[in-house]
Amino acid sequence: xxxxxxxxxxxxxxxxxxxxxxxxxxxxxxxxxxxxxxxxxxxxxxxxxxxxxxxxxxxxxxxxxxxxxxxxxxxxxxxxxxxxxxxxxxxxxxxxxxxxxxxxxxxxxxxxxxxxxxxxxxxxxxxxxxxxxxxxxxxxxxxxxxxxxxxxxxxxxxxxxxxxxxxxxxxxxxxxxxxxxxxxxxxxxxxxxxxxxxxxxxxxxxxxxxxxxxxxxxxxxxxxxxxxxxxxxxxxxxxxxxxxxxxxxxxxxxxxxxxxxxxxxxxxxxxxxxxxxxxxxxxxxxxxxxxxxxxxxxxxxxxxxxxxxxxxxxxxxxxxxxxxxxxxxxxxxxxxxxxxxxxxxxxxxxxxxxxxxxxxxxxxxxxxxxxxxxxxxxxxxxxxxxxxxxxxxxxxxxxxxxxxxxxxxxxxxxxxxxxxxxxxxxxxxxxxxxxxxxxxxxxxxxxxxxxxxxxxxxxxxxxxxxxxxxxxxxxxxxxxxxxxxxxxxxxxxxxxxxxxxxxxxxxxxxxxxxxxxxxxxxxxxxxxxxxxxxxxxxxx
Length: 540
Known about the structure:
Layout: H1 2-18, E1 21-30, E2 39-43, E3 46-54, E4 62-69, E5 80-83, E6 88-96, E7 99-106, E8 114-120, E9 126-131, E10 138-145, E11 148-155, E12 158-165, E13 171-173, E14 182-190, E15 195-203, E16 209-217, E17 222-228, E18 237-238, E19 242-245, E20 251-259, E21 264-273, E22 279-284, H2 298-313, E23 323-332, E24 335-347, H3 380-386, E25 396-407, E26 413-426, E27 434-438, E28 441-448, E29 451-458, E30 461-470, E31 479-483, E32 489-494, E33 497-509, E34 515-528
Antiparallel strand pairs: 1-34, 2-3, 3-4, 4-5, 6-7, 7-8, 8-9, 10-11, 11-12, 12-13, 14-15, 15-16, 16-17, 18-20, 19-20, 20-21, 21-22, 23-24, 24-25, 25-26, 27-28, 28-29, 29-30, 31-33, 32-33, 33-34
């Protein structure tokens, strides 16, 4: 009788915890357990997944594999393999129209020979283009527009941008980028005007830091310069900047601000820029974010709120302890959604002391437009880009919380809220969380160990936080024998769907009844439904 009661209780309380996540469809590719994972980019409503793979163990020869999957994880043309020149490795990629561009380099040195593989995703043709006479630069970004390749990196500890024509072999070094005390905060394509934009942070005439938005054509000519040199009060500086296009004429630049030279974060800013280059900035502090500490329990939140009010009563701007780093801005019909991470740097050896450390400060691999939030720092692109392996990474991060803000059309805060990371300790610097916005529903999810961790907000009110969901298979007769934890990635796809990928060993039964295992790289479509959550009721 007691056993039956326990089972009923488990069922009763287990349903709410597991009903918000459904594993809808799955696609597998046979793969050795420790083979490289697939990178992914959005291709219209589909995705393109690709990787380089050694032909055999300990071989320097590679093949390039790619596959196009639709929204049901079906494929018409299957897995396609292309040869890679001997001794070359994948170090960059981009998608432009119906063409996937892959950048390969021989050896690990920054001056290694390079070539670009252009793949027609419709006709399946592939073309190789050699890349010559580039500066020796540590590559941070590789973008392609109209067969013009944009290389962004650093040379002699200074940022450099070069534009290379694949067809005519011309090369143009972009002016106004290379310089002391200069950082590239963002680079983005502007296909609507056949141009690209570089967002720079630089010390101004009086050593105050200013942000410059430079727009260049595809030959590297400067079309427009917007200089954000009037910001906040004295000693207040822009720390991070993320530019989003609101419409054809208006842009917004959003990020954290504070006293950069003191590693002090004061809050968020939003700078609206019109078609004439005129701009207006609005600052937001903890006084504007009543739910910033909502990741704490009631007692902890009340204590922090009281500290903020105390500083406000003294006419002081309350500061944010630790790093406050922008991750994503999503423009929706009902407003603008902003996602920040709040984390602590445990060990700051190797951090650039001239500028507060953040993933945007060291430049992330275009995380805002690609499905590449990998937690695997064995990733060859990341390792080769920073010339370091996992054993050489000596900076640890303790992730505290994720902070979300919804802004109305007039710039006012409609709501804010936060979700806990439960002091996630890692050496990986990239953002872990992914957000989904479905009407008045807001989701924040990430993978921790072998579970999906989810937070759910509706109309600004947090319904649940820090809920774990076990990984499941579609075929109930099969079992997960083992999962390569560092290979797991959870990325937002569309609507209320996420995409979970990684390497696994699957235990199954052959037709003759004999037990067997297979090693695969898998893609799983995951649906989230926060409204199915029913909180546990406690009796008085």
